[in-house]
Write a structure and sequence with these properties.
By secondary structure, the protein is α/β, with parallel strands linked by helices. The chain has eight helices and eleven strands. The chain has two domains: 186 residues, Rossmann fold; 50 residues, N-terminal domain of TfIIb, CATH 2.20.25. Strands 3-2-1-4-5-11-10 form a seven-stranded mixed sheet, with helices on both faces. Helix 3 packs across helix 4. The longest helix has 15 residues. It is globular, with a radius of gyration of 18 Å. The C terminus is likely disordered. This is Class I SAM-dependent methyltransferase. One of its GO terms (molecular function) is methyltransferase activity.
Amino acid sequence: MSHDTSSAWYADFFTELPNEFWRRAVPPEAAEAEADFIERHLGLRPASRILDSPCGSGRHTLALAARGHRVSGVDISAEAIGYARRAAAEAGLDVELAVADMRDVPRDGSFDAAVCMGNSFGYLDLAGAREFVAALAAAVRPGGGLVVDFNAAAESVLPGYRGEPRHMEAGGIVVTTTTGYDAARSVLLSRYHFRRGAEEFESTALHHVYTSAHLGALLTEGGFVDVGLFGGPDDAPFGIGSGRLLLTARRAAGPGPGPARA
């Protein structure tokens, strides 16, 4: 598998066919369970202001808005944002949605919480991840909460890794995925082939693999405290072989990280 995939692969990947596959593949009750987790662990009050970045097609944006929260979603995919806007209008929900990079968020400390769901954190290399965490810390008020959903933790993907092709189907869309691991860069390279009737789409996704300790350090270095690790929205403990990592944290009180003073 070629290792020359652009670091900004996600800017062109999330077109209608891949987006529609995941909209059909993920059951509605999954978003509700994840919204329960977010509310429970962040102790959200009614009408909390929440940032969802990147928000994709709005699964969590809409689920949280339906519970009375004031939600702003950001995503680089114009198709996904368009879908989320239509879904919000049909449901009578008032949400703010913008087409932008996941790091391009309001850094005004006005949000009670931020969420990064759906494994998007791994899109970014170390420098990009640090920039993203800094953006989230600047967006959230002191004491505000954070949830990060990550499926590419080293403890999740490396035990028993074999890279065998996977075949998935949802709502008439068939997907074949072949995955390789670049050990020198700690990167998963996943080649996707989507097919819906005569329509086909191929592209390679790149996910940076971090250990859970590395992720915790990125959050604390960026201005968050009280990092918690969970293996799913049911509060299962995270460990070797867990298929998923949900991190919770809280924005540190007082000024954020910056140059040391004498």
